[in-house]
């Protein structure tokens, strides 16, 4: 019988809430050697993920969008809203200000093969596993899948 996400996922998920200071989230990531953490509200419902990628803005800063001047008008060559989002992340002090809100998730009953395909197609390192109420009940990482593959070799 094919393995499901529930068979492989980690169940003891460390999460943070949106109002947590960014320094605290960074310390958890560093201490635990995690590349990301689910962000949940008071009820445990998933509201985002904070990852190493989100934190890179803190270190690299943001370049203003390219523009040209034409007849005393500024014409942006890139969407200025993107710049504003990136600037917000670079200056953020809480998890909520830096986290990614559009999170790809998976249900525990889904086949592991489907999860692996989704992770590959969307180029994500982890999938929060959520129940029907969008509460985080587990997390599935690429490492979890590789370890399962290795165990099946024996």
How would you sum up this structure in a few lines?
This protein has helices at 5-8, 22-32, 52-60, 80-91, 95-98, 112-122, 142-153; strands at residues 36-40, 46-51, 67-70, 73-76, 126-130, 136-141. The protein is an alpha+beta fold. The chain has one domain (5-153): CBS-domain.
Number of domains: 1
- State the total count of DSSP E strands: 6
CATH class call: Alpha Beta
What is the CATH third-level topology name?
A: CBS-domain
Order of strands across the main sheet = 1-2
Q: Cα distance, first to last residue?
A: 17 Å
Largest sheet descriptor: 2 strands, antiparallel
Radius of gyration: 19 Å
Mean pLDDT: 86
- Second CATH tier, the architecture: Roll
Could you say which overall geometry the principal axes of the C-alpha atoms support? Answer: globular
Helix content: 40-55%
Total helical segments: 7
Describe the structure.
- With 154 residues, the protein is α+β, with helices and mostly antiparallel strands.
- It has a single domain, classed as CBS-domain (Roll).
- Helix content is 41%, strand content 19%.
- Strands 1-2 form a two-stranded antiparallel sheet. A two-stranded antiparallel ribbon has the order 3-4. A two-stranded antiparallel ribbon has the order 5-6.
Give keywords.
154 residues, alpha+beta, two-stranded antiparallel sheet, 6 strands
Topology:
Elements: H1 5-8, H2 22-32, E1 36-40, E2 46-51, H3 52-60, E3 67-70, E4 73-76, H4 80-91, H5 95-98, H6 112-122, E5 126-130, E6 136-141, H7 142-153
Antiparallel strand pairs: 1-2, 3-4, 5-6
Helix pairs in contact: 3-4
């Amino acid at each position: 019988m094919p393995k499901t996400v529930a068979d492989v996922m980690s169940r003891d998920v460390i999460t943070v809430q949106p109002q947590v200071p960014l320094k605290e989230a960074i310390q958890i990531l560093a201490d635990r050697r995690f590349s990301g953490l689910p962000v949940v509200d008071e009820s445990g419902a998933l509201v985002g993920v904070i990852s190493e990628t989100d934190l890179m803005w803190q270190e690299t800063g943001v370049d203003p969008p390219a523009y040209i001047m034409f007849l005393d008008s500024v014409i942006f060559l890139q969407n200025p809203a993107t710049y504003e989002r990136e600037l917000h992340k670079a200056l953020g002090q809480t998890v909520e200000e830096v986290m990614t809100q559009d999170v790809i998730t998976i249900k525990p009953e889904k086949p592991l093969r489907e999860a692996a395909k989704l992770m590959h197609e969307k180029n994500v390192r982890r999938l929060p596993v959520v129940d029907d109420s969008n509460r985080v009940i587990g997390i599935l990482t690429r490492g979890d899948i590789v370890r399962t593959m290795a165990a099946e070799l024996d």
